[in-house]
Amino acid sequence: VNGLFWRGAPLAASHRPPGLPLIIALLHRLQALPLLPFLNFALLGLAAVLLHRLVRLRHAALVAALAVLLFVSNGSLFGYTRFVMAEVWTLPFLLAAALAFFHAEKEPRRYVHCALLLSLSFLFHYAGAVVGFAFVLAMLFHRRAALATPWPWVALLAALPLPALWLVVRAQHNRSSEN
């Protein structure tokens, strides 16, 4: 419904995060909406690749392969590809953000990359905020020295506009809505 609302249809929107509804609106406008399950499947494939890279940073290749095997053998997860589920779209962003966060320990500029990925993930699912909070806790407990550098603060400033804009739009909608 939200995708059709963003396309201009006279429907009431629930104003869930706008990422997937905007993708749906674009696919509908391009008359390519039947491609959505294939895109979902491709995104889960990308998530599997990113998961392998993330696990491989700390563990042997066999452990990473087993983690991916467990991931792809989860029937309910791949069942999401047939439905309109924002989790499928946010997962690659979250995994890529985790990779960037890991690398930011040695390359602090990667905090900006991590924060931008979390910002984009937030536009698909609010899990991006939860993961972002976990990264903040990790910094407070394990990377406190990084807080003395400008990069975490630049990352915060770079990441805030998209989620903040969405929250303002949603608040405006909630105030004007009869729901």
Offer a concise description of the structure:
The chain is mainly α.
Question: What do these coordinates show?
Answer:
With 179 residues, this protein is mainly α. Helix content is 72%, strand content 0%. It is built from ten helices and no strands. The longest helix has 21 residues, at 36-56. The protein is flat. The model has no long low-confidence stretch (mean pLDDT 88).
| Beta strand count | 0
Overall, the morphology is flat
Strand content range: under 5%
Structural Rg: 18 Å
Per DSSP, the total helix count is 10
Low-confidence stretches: none
- Topology pattern, helix = H, strand = E: HHHHHHHHHH
Q: N- to C-terminal separation?
A: 15 Å
| Structural class estimated from helices and strands | mainly alpha
Major beta-sheet overview: none
Average pLDDT, all residues: 88
Features:
179 residues, mainly alpha, 0% strand, flat
Protein topology:
Blueprint lengths: L1 H6 L11 H11 L6 H21 L4 H12 L2 H5 L6 H19 L5 H13 L4 H16 L8 H9 L1 H16 L3
Helix pairs in contact: 3-4, 3-6, 6-7, 6-8, 7-8, 7-9
